[in-house]
Amino acid sequence: MFAKTAFGIALLSVIAPCDAFAPSSLIPGRLSSHSAALTHGARSSAFPTGPSLRTTPTLASPQMATKGIDFPALDGKETRVGIVYTRWNAEVVDKLRDGSKKGLTDICGVQADNIVEFEVPGAWELPVAARYMALTQKVDAVIAIGVLVKGETDHYDMIKDAACSALMTLQLETGIPVLNGILGCHDMSQAEARATGDNNHGVWWGQTAVEMALLRATQMGKVSADGEVKKKVMF
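Structure tokens predicted for 6,7-dimethyl-8-ribityllumazine synthase:
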């Protein structure tokens, strides 16, 4: 009995000094002075009186992406470009076509008589018409323009996927740059928005056609890196 009592006294002598250094709120059955004060409605000066320290972080405002593409200065006076366009959704296609010609002539300096145009019924016919142009080797690039608007059936997806895939295959097989100017939209307002004003995608297609045509000419040795036309053609 005496041994147990002595052990208890020794244990308390160890705990007591620790109690002096431990936060009172961690000791069972005891409230800290701050906790007690808050419990009785008093605010301690040790606690911040302003807004809570756990504030919700302020998210940065999203920046609107600038639409469009930046182009270097392009000299297309010696470039010949073909445009294939559809009669389907002509009210929008015509705006895209005009935009393409603006990009070619007004911006890149392509001569008007160096633009060859084919009209076809719809987007399904664009790849084969573009192929006719590419195989003649009389054009340096081709722009295929059409507008497809999603309807109630799967026809939209069938035409869009097949036509776009065929245009990609065409340029890889022939080496002639073929611009995919087929807009696949969910409604006509989306198509109009991409064919109007500064957002007219056709303008960018025209510039891209010239840039890719010049790239091809440079790689084939027809034009030097500084744009000078070479007299001797390698291919």
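The beta strands are 81-86, 115-120, 141-149, 178-185.
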